[in-house]
Design goal:
Layout: H1 4-15, H2 25-41, H3 46-62, H4 71-87, E1 98-103, H5 110-123, E2 128-132, H6 140-151, E3 154-156, H7 164-174, E4 180-184, H8 193-206, E5 210-216, H9 222-234, E6 238-242, H10 251-260, E7 264-268, E8 276-278, H11 281-288, H12 294-311, H13 327-339, H14 343-349, H15 356-359, H16 365-381, H17 385-389, H18 396-406, H19 410-431, H20 435-452
Parallel strand pairs: 1-4, 1-5, 2-3, 2-4, 5-6, 6-7
Antiparallel strand pairs: 7-8
Helix pairs in contact: 1-2, 2-3, 3-4, 4-11, 5-6, 7-8, 9-10, 12-13, 13-16, 16-18
């Protein structure tokens, strides 16, 4: 999860209030100190931490909890609202024709971010193009071209040209049919005069609708000076923060935008081109506090279903609501889950399943689960069509044969069959649901995830 250490610490602090109907000043002091410690460890600026903690303390002591609200949920809501205010609004990124220029130091992740953003726009129905103007870093052209290929988007660069402004100009001409042009610029190890001059010349040539600063989350509070310097030099309309999956220090980058009066546009949460999301402060903080994010989850599910359907021409997700649930159906569901991305990120989006529950799991729990899915896939390769269609027909002798063919243990094969039975029972529950039932279930998930900050939720539905 993004800033996992911070989220875990905040949730642990709030859990100390469980069972209390009233909150004392001593309780508030203890909570505020823990919040200060958590935020400072995450490299949030000291002055911002003090302002935030003062505001939380004042509100927790002066505001009366709504009727029927526990002390913990009341403070959770205050912390949620204050953190949302701290990280600010999201950069406006309209879904229309535009040119976006990326700036940042070398190693910040600009080239990867350019491809990720292009992929994101393509999933929104627009035709993007990446223009690579970095002539400074060896290998920049090859990396950008390969990333664009993975994102399946148009690309322009010229490895034989030394003039980045000329590349930018010719790139716009060569990709004139694109709706969104993403111009990737060179970086340096520090903000030097020649880098500023180069970016200014490219900016004058392409006249971007927005300029985004790409910041590595691991930079911590150093992001503050970097954001200010780039803003003074070329003007910054928004920030894309990268590598948030691998650092507990991302608070510095998240709050650096406060220095420029800017906003956050995108978050990079992994290594593949799909590991990008629009920054939405309410959803981001909700996940941080273990309250889930149904909007992001819904988007991922819809995208995964579309991708799985494209790969499996004969499969329609709505067929799951009819007839028998077979091992073939289970396999396609597993493929859809794989298309949704890392399981730990998906779990964070489910109210009640992320947050506190994830804190209790071993660090490799999600890896084990993904390995289990891969084992199941190998086992199904060793089954006949009849067995995939009718798993109830599989007896002891067939289990032994499948074990020999797949190289997996008989226990693992029986585990697969048990998993199928459980999923089949679940599908029968869904088959009997109307639209109103589904809406009530989703509402229950939101209430359990949001109000309880990590209790019940999806895990208690079945």
């Amino acid at each position: 999860m993004v800033l996992d250490d911070l989220g875990s610490s905040l949730r642990g602090t709030l859990d100390k209030l469980r069972g209390k109907s009233r909150i004392s000043e001593e309780d508030v002091d203890e909570i505020v100190k823990e919040i200060q410690r958590s935020l400072l460890q995450a490299d949030v600026d000291v002055s911002l931490v003090m302002d935030l903690s003062d505001s939380i303390k004042e509100r927790a002591l002066e505001e009366e909890p709504p009727g029927g609200t526990s002390a913990r949920d009341h403070v959770l809501r205050i912390v949620y609202e204050e953190l949302v205010d701290l990280v600010g609004d999201s950069t406006e990124i309209p879904l229309e024709e535009q040119t976006i220029m990326l700036a940042g130091l070398q190693g910040s992740g600009k080239t990867t971010t350019a491809a990720k953003m292009a992929w994101w726009f393509s999933k929104k129905g627009l035709r993007p193009a990446v223009i690579q103007t970095d002539t400074f870093r060896p290998g920049a052209y090859d990396q950008a071209r390969q990333m664009a290929e993975r994102a399946e988007v148009e690309f322009y660069g010229d490895p034989d040209e030394d003039d980045p402004v000329k590349i930018a100009r010719e790139g716009l001409e060569a990709t004139a049919d694109a709706d969104v042009h993403i111009v990737d610029t060179a970086g340096r190890h520090a903000l030097e005069d020649d880098l500023i001059s180069e970016i200014e010349e490219i900016e004058a040539e392409v006249q971007p609708d927005r300029s985004l600063l790409v910041l590595d989350a691991a930079i911590g509070q150093g992001a503050k000076d970097q954001a200010r310097e780039f803003d003074d030099a070329v003007g910054i309309d928004g920030v894309a923060i990268t590598k948030l999956d691998g650092t507990a220090k991302g608070g510095g980058a998240l709050t650096a935008v406060d220095e420029t009066g800017s906003t956050i546009a995108f978050l990079g949460t992994g290594e593949t081109v799909q590991d990008i999301e629009r920054f939405e402060p309410d959803s981001f903080i909700s996940r941080l506090l273990g309250m889930g994010d149904l909007k992001q989850l819904t988007e991922r599910v819809e995208r995964a279903m579309e991708e799985t359907q494209a790969e499996e021409d004969d499969w329609d997700p709505e067929d799951l609501m009819k007839g028998e649930f077979t091992l073939k159906d289970m396999r396609k569901q597993m493929k859809a889950m794989d298309n949704m991305g890392p399981l730990d990120q998906v779990m964070d989006m489910i109210p009640g399943m992320g947050g506190g529950l994830m804190d209790q799991l071993p660090d490799d729990a999600m890896d084990v689960t993904q390995e289990r899915m891969r084992n199941f896939d190998v086992i199904m390769d060793s089954m006949t069509e009849a067995e995939l269609e009718n798993p109830r027909s599989i007896g002891a002798s067939q289990v032994r044969r499948i074990a020999r063919g797949s190289g997996k243990s008989e226990d693992t094969i029986r585990e697969l069959l048990d998993q199928h039975k459980m999923m089949a029972r679940t599908m029968k529950q869904f088959q009997g649901m109307g639209d109103g039932d589904m809406q009530r279930m989703m509402k229950k998930m939101q209430q359990q995830g949001g109000g309880g900050g990590g209790g019940g939720g999806f895990g208690g539905m079945f």
